[in-house]
Amino acid sequence: MFSKELNELIFSVITSWQVIVVTIGIVIYIFIVSSVAQLYHSARPKEPKVKKPKKEAEAEVVTEAGEDDGLGLED
Q: Which of the four pLDDT bands, split at 50, 70 and 90, describes residue 39?
């Protein structure tokens, strides 16, 4: 299926020092990133979530017709 030359070429590319160095660099990078992420995740204190009280409905300014709102203004 594959020619002998193609097999040799693939083998020489895979075993070249550039490919090996880049592969080792990627493995080290992934190891460092995952260990930092694990440390960050475990170092955070687990605080209970404090629910903020809902603001009470602010005083509505709606006045009925005929009521005195104390401002002395007419509709």
A: confident
